């Protein structure tokens, strides 16, 4: 979060690169692996529902390795009291941020009354954020779309953001597509509604006091930099979140992130250093009863686009 914000516990770096929360992908083994490639990029957990946390195995759902920091927990839910309880549990596990999912377009999610359908209820999202803010000292952030179905005007988006800001949210991660809740699958919702980056940049211009992180369709660091380099000027992004590309091409996306996004000259690691660091970790996890594939499946993209990359993937398989 930019240094102009007064609440110390809510302060975050001036600009940041994030790996998006992705179900079945960004688990603790993937995040540990990605952390070896970039030490500054923010990691996000897979979405965890409040009912799973309140009724399930919390260690299995929320446990992570200390090396994963900075890391955010993404929650799915719509009951302020339950979200406050779960945010508190997340904070006790050591997460650096609690993020509320108001962007997932899956029908299964909508019937549970959370995800993107909550964009139609900004007051409820405000109350959820306020309850979570009350229960934790770490930042509470919201990830959402630019609209849903016919509720997709810029005025409605501004109303959503200003209402949720009243609950104390200072950071909005905005997927630059609207969600179509009836008739499109989650995969189609990532591809069919057109990307509208200008809407997110306009949002930053109209809400300069907020940290706005842009998400959706960003596939390399040069695109990320283009969104960030307007920073300091009207409409410049405070952060960029990359999804599938960071998973499928982790080295290409993240190996230069520390240097190019965070100006960290100590950044930069070779393919082989990453593998060398993974070996003792894998050994330790196998001894703890973790299956090899649970870890190596996330490493398939390490040599993406390199000579011998296919042989490496075959070897892992």
TrEMBL record:
FMN binds at residues 21-23, 74, 143, 175, 215-217, 243-244. Residues 19-316 form the DUS-like FMN-binding domain. PROSITE patterns: UPF0034. Transmembrane segments: none annotated. Its cofactor is FMN. Its EC number is 1.3.1.-. One of its GO terms (molecular function) is tRNA binding. Keywords: Flavoprotein, FMN, NADP, Nucleotide-binding, Oxidoreductase, RNA-binding, tRNA processing, tRNA-binding. The active site is at residue 104. InterPro entries: Aldolase_TIM (IPR013785), DUS-like_FMN-bd (IPR035587), DUS_fam (IPR001269), DusA (IPR004653), tRNA_hU_synthase_CS (IPR018517). It comes from the Eukaryota. Catalyzes the synthesis of dihydrouridine, a modified base found in the D-loop of most tRNAs. NCBIfam families: PRK11815.1, yjbN. HAMAP family: DusA_subfam. This is tRNA-dihydrouridine synthase. It comes from Guillardia theta (strain CCMP2712) (Cryptophyte).
